[in-house]
Amino acid sequence: MVSRNSFLAFVAILLVAAVLGLILDDSYLLRIGTYSAIYSIVAIGLNLLFGNAGQISLGHGGFFAIGAYGAAVLMKNFHLPFLAALILSAIIAGLVGVLIGYIALRLKGHYLAMATLAFAMIVFGLLVELDYFGSTSGITGIPPISLFGHDFTDPRGIYLFTWGVVGLVYLVSLSLLSSRVGRALMAIRGDDLAAETLGIDVARYKIQVFAVSAFFTGIAGAIYAAYMALINPFSFNPELSINLLLMVVVGGLGSIPGSVLGVAVLQVLPEFGRQWENFRLAGYGILLVLLVIFAPGGIAGLLALLFRFLGNTFRSRKAVPLVERSTYADR
Fold first, then answer.
1. What 3-state DSSP class applies to 141?
2. Could you state, in order of their start, the residue ranges of all structural domains in the chain?
3. Which of 61, 95, 139, 193 is the most buried (most CB within 10 A)?
């Protein structure tokens, strides 16, 4: 079963997203919200892998590109409907995730990070060089998001659709973590050798979580391609993988709500600091260092501490006996 707090966070996030989608009239703000939803899908999948299973990845930009280019080719060249292209491209990304998962069985720590970063660089290099994928020009004229004959061309409709997908991925992830699989992943994150002595098939779970994480990222990539209508390799450079990891760390490792919060912060903050665009990476670095030092649990950890403090304060005030109050007043 999904924990009560996680489910309440799920309801709160979707309610806020829905209200914003209904009241916002600025297409630019709706666009930022749609980007946040797309990257939230990636961040949830990456947090399953890194935050819950302890498998660091700097290659999710590669899975994102596979999902985007897969959907673009299937829709434009093979004339598949959006939903079929989304599912197939996500499956392709998941199968590549299985391959990377096999490689990850022999690697840990910074070696695994280097291997996954190399994967993202290989995907980027292939997209630049292969003419079938448009080389540096990319693919244009990608059909829009469409379900059951209805095209989503209105910014508000696309926004609400994308956040609906976030809600579905969010629920699936929470259900997965509350099951035996989630407990096994937590054991692997703690100590994979100890988990293996307890009878947990560490290799199988590592491969599975890579596949699920890549599958979710492929879904986000497919939505991104249909939303943008054009893609090129430079949208999926290795820096994207680093930014995705930053979103997860800032939001809170191991926290699914934190994944969404981290994306929201790193998507919205730059919009208020356009005049300091050249200092963006420096700002990210400073923010990450401060969080590691003062809030290792990320934004989700800070909010949990705040709610716990407020709850304890409220309970302590409520628990003061009336007899004690009157005795003190009589003195």
1. coil
2. 4-281
3. 61
The pLDDT of residue 321: 56
The answer for residues whose C-beta is within 8 angstroms of residue 270's C-beta and 6 or more apart is 277, 280
Amino acid at 264: A
d(CA 202, CA 180): 13
Instruction: Give the DSSP H/E element, type plus range, for residue 146.
Output: strand 146-147
| Number of CB atoms found within 10 A of residue 164's CB | 14
Q: What is the pLDDT of residues 139-180, one digit of tens each?
A: 999 999 998 888 888 999 999 999 999 999 999 999 999 889
Taking phi first (over 0 means left), then psi (-120 to 50 degrees means alpha), and beta for anything else, what does residue 154 get? beta
pTM of the predicted protein model: 0.90
Contacts of 232 (CB under 8 A, 6+ apart): 134, 136, 137, 138, 139
pLDDT at 322: 47
Contacts of 236 (CB under 8 A, 6+ apart): 61, 62, 64, 65, 68, 120, 123, 124, 127
What is the DSSP track for 32-66? Answer: HHHHHHHHHHHHHHHHIIIIIT----S-HHHHHHH
Residue-level pLDDT at 3: 63
**Which of helix, strand or coil describes residue 290?**
helix
Is domain 4-281 annotated with CATH 1.10.3470? yes
Residue for token digits 């996030």?
A: 13
Which runs of consecutive H residues, i.e. helices, occur in 178-276? Answer: 180-190, 192-197, 202-228, 238-251, 256-268
